[in-house]
Design brief:
Elements (H helix, E strand, L loop, with lengths): L1 E8 L6 E6 L2 H10 L11 E3 L3 E3 L2 H11 L2 H10 L1
Antiparallel strand pairs: 1-2, 1-3, 1-4
Length: 79
Amino acid sequence: MYFACPLQSAHNLDRYYVGLTSDVERRLEEHNAGKPIHTNKFRPWKLITYTAFLDKSRAGKFEVYLKTSSGRAFAKNRL
């Protein structure tokens, strides 16, 4: 399974991150430990939701969509 996971900064509620992983818990721990350079200054992160896919390609396409302006609007209103 592959998961598209939007995260939100617990301290800066306007900061979001969308990623793709096969292990949601491990990836969230990595973000909160400061391992990814792009997200370490806005930690801690909280998981908003995740969407599961059997196919990595479809999960990747959904992740890319969530990073677009229409995808961000969708996530803000629906997720």
